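Q: I have 489 residues here and want to know how they pack in 3D. Can you give me a structure?
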Amino acid sequence: MPATSTTPTEPGAMSFDVIVIGAGAVGENVADRTTQAGLRTVIIEAELVGGECSYWACMPSKALLRSGAALAAARRVGGAAEAVTGDLDVAAVLRRRDSFTSNWSDEGQVRWLEKTGITLVRGHARLTGVRQVTVTADDGNTTVLTAAHAVVVSTGSTALLPDIAGLASVSPWTSREATSAPGIPDSLAIIGGGVVAAEMATAYAGLGAEVTMIVRSALLGGQEPFAGELVLAALGEAGVTVLSGVSTTEATRNADGDVTLTLSNGTRVTATEVLVATGRVPRTEDVGLETVGLAPGDWLEVDDTLLVQGAAPELAGEWLYAAGDVNHRALLTHQGKYQARAAGDVIAARAAGTSVDDTRWGTHVATADHAAVPQVTFTDPEVASIGLTQAAAEKAGFRIRVLDYNLGGVAGASVHADGYTGSARAIVDLDREVLIGATFVGPDVAELLHAATIAVVGEVPIRRLWHAVPSYPTLSEVWLRLLEEYGRP
């Protein structure tokens, strides 16, 4: 492949093999793969290297949740429960949360880039031509970067602010403020009923806030119905008020600083702060998409090799890629990193002129995005799922059988916690006799998920699963019970 240099080719200009826009977890993984393949790679970041997951999403949110989950787990086991003599130390929880974000310093991540050999340019990046990106630094200086082979957009997504009268003027929280708050408000109103809303309701209730959720439809509506029902019951036991079937029509901040939300049924909710968790929009409003025939603010459509799709002549030549949230395939960090590995490897293959394996489940594709996406909602109980729900499988036209089992009836569950409450469901494609979906709800079920993921991705025949013997007594014994529901071959 042709040699490249980081030496400016003209004032304010630099050339590389690969340019990555966005140094979050996804962009880092793309850059790591291309660098390992010998391609000179630059990564551009306007905020903190490490991105949303490291500082405002995955890590701080799970740190906020973990202390409460550990306390709840102790209280569910006789002997340990009697030893618990107090509530959470809120200040200690927040300090631990801050340690996971390195107090919002990216020095460690920058050192990793240096060690890996990835060049970092700080500033706001915009596409300004084919294989060309212009970076504007905070001081207004610009640098033009050119790529010999590829540009990858991994700018992620940001919180959607719904069109509610007065909402913008009350300075609502998004997931960023909720995960980085320096203290816990007396009360918190949450607009939304998805994963972020349910997790933050769990965390803030555990940390002592009075929490009210305003849910337009069903809680965790994209999951199996029993998942939302079990989480709803647990939130109620934790003191969370969940108002379902209503929406917010107006928001005002009162003279005393509290926020009042007017609901569609005419009632009002007042809280110290309001968190909006109603969805995500792509960060593509100002990255120069118009220069390559794409619409600013849109999600970027890609093929399974993460190559951006579009009819504009500027997109010819297999050079523009999009990985992570920005392509709207699966808005999850682990799935974005999976895409990043495929994108980095296919960029390297195309640069070297070697064969591209873009068949289903091939080396250079993100096949799992379509029907094998694992996800954990870290509420209490946890919800862990992979693949299709019953409703999604039926809509897709599969001939299925649904296997349900009371997770609390497994011996390992009774040892794990007194009065363990949970449920498991598996979806079997009867024509192929393979698993195409599974959902587990209960304390600590997240660790059951990867076994299900392997079964779905590997399309392991039910006949063979009978020979995967679960250890006793563990929660994994539920696999045997689900197989017994299906019946021996």
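Q: Anything worth noting?
A: The mean pLDDT is 96. Residues 292 and 314 are 5 Å apart (CA to CA).
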